Amino acid sequence: MCRMSNSSSNRAQDCVKHIGSSGSMEVVGVYRMFERSEKMRNLLYLKYFGDGDSKSYDNVKDIYGKDSVKKLEYIGHIQKRVGTIRKLKVNTKVWEGKES
């Protein structure tokens, strides 16, 4: 996370690298955004728009209290998954037994 200095004469950046796995980077980033929203902007996020990956949502759903954040799924992600299942079903040969 990098922050620019507020001073117009001093444009130095204060940077910190993410420590941990690349898979946890999104989880940590989303948690920080939700956590800082209340302190810095007096703002609470009530809805989380996700793409089917629940790791980030599971980390923030109770951040302001029990089940305070509701999850909404991106419909394109769902449509993509349904399309994949439909293609798999069409392209898979089904072996039927013969009756005697």
UniProtKB/TrEMBL annotation:
Domain of life the protein comes from: Eukaryota
Domain (Mutator-like transposase): residue spans on this chain: 5-84
InterPro entries: Mutator_transp_dom
Protein name: Mutator-like transposase domain-containing protein
Organism whose genome encodes this protein: Araneus ventricosus
